[in-house]
């Protein structure tokens, strides 16, 4: 289980390493283009929804328990689509890769 550290002082959000790696790539791509975005997280146990505003001046740190997982390009594209929508970045289910 990884952790997204947001803000200063930081708030910590526990996110699965695989999911966090994909979220990091989306957020960093937006920030490299100096674009702001909102990011909504829903706690699956409590259904509590939290939303945060991320801009190039936001302090973020991504912490992982394991090595960088393999990236699912289909999922990455779906996450980018949510980040570019009016609803902002949100975690959507990972699609299965087509079998070859």
TrEMBL record:
Domain of life, source organism: Bacteria
InterPro entries in the record: DUF7882
Domain DUF7882: 1-94
Name this protein carries in UniProt: DUF7882 domain-containing protein
Protein species of origin: Microbacterium helvum
């Amino acid at each position: 289980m990884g952790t997204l550290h947001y803000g200063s002082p930081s708030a910590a959000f526990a996110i699965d390493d695989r999911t966090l790696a994909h979220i990091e790539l989306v957020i960093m791509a937006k920030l490299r283009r100096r674009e702001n975005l909102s990011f909504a997280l829903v706690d699956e146990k409590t259904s509590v929804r939290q939303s945060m505003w991320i801009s190039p001046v936001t302090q973020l740190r991504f912490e992982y328990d394991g090595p960088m997982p393999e990236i699912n390009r289909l999922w990455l594209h779906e996450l980018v689509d949510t980040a570019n929508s009016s609803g902002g970045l949100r975690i959507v289910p990972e699609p299965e890769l087509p079998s070859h």
